[in-house]
Write a structure and sequence with these properties.
alpha+beta, globular, 7 strands, 173 residues, single chain, seven-stranded antiparallel sheet
Length: 173
């Protein structure tokens, strides 16, 4: 289903990513990531083609799925809102974050971008905990508060644009 989304060569400058803003850093174990992948993407674990490896990479775990590699990166510091020139919402206090990222080989077109956000959103929904205050969509420079409505929209499996998701969920308050 998602194979057509992934052209062959990747470029970090064209990455699509979602940051989980956390009150306290939660680094996901290989088992937690495998379980989240299986629930989010409805595939069975395969140690070669559909799996997570949290132990090999210094920067963070790698997830293998759909013939592609996704990254999970961690920061023990809060998002640098001053450097990014964005304003942290009142509910957005966090001390760390985890970022789920796919390095696209080229700038994805709108339809592909929405499908990639759907894919990452499904996984993020499974990784959200009570310590997750919200999400940050870096390309759009947009925050989304962790609410039941946000989680419902992420779990829907529908392609989305973070700006539209934000409007539907009214998650900024």
């Amino acid at each position: 289903m998602f194979k057509s989304l992934f052209p062959k060569k990747a470029s970090p400058s064209n990455a699509v990513s979602v940051l989980l803003l956390q009150r306290k850093l939660s680094k996901f174990s290989t088992d937690e990531l495998n379980h989240a992948m299986q629930r989010a993407w409805r595939q069975k674990h395969d140690p070669t083609h559909f799996c997570a490896d949290a132990g090999q990479e210094q920067d963070g775990p790698l997830l293998k799925a759909f013939g592609e590699v996704f990254k999970v990166l961690y920061s023990t510091k809060p998002l640098d809102v001053d450097g990014l020139r964005v304003e942290l919402p009142p509910w957005g206090h966090h001390t760390s974050f985890a970022m789920v990222q796919y390095d696209c080989p080229r700038l994805p077109e709108e339809v592909e971008r929405k499908q990639l956000y759907c894919l990452l959103g499904l996984l993020c929904r499974e990784l959200i905990t009570s310590e997750t205050v919200g999400l940050y969509f870096s390309q759009e420079r947009l925050f989304a508060r962790n609410t039941m409505k946000l989680q419902f929209l992420l779990a829907s499996g529908r392609p989305f644009d973070p700006v539209e998701l934000h409007a539907q969920a009214d998650v900024s308050k």
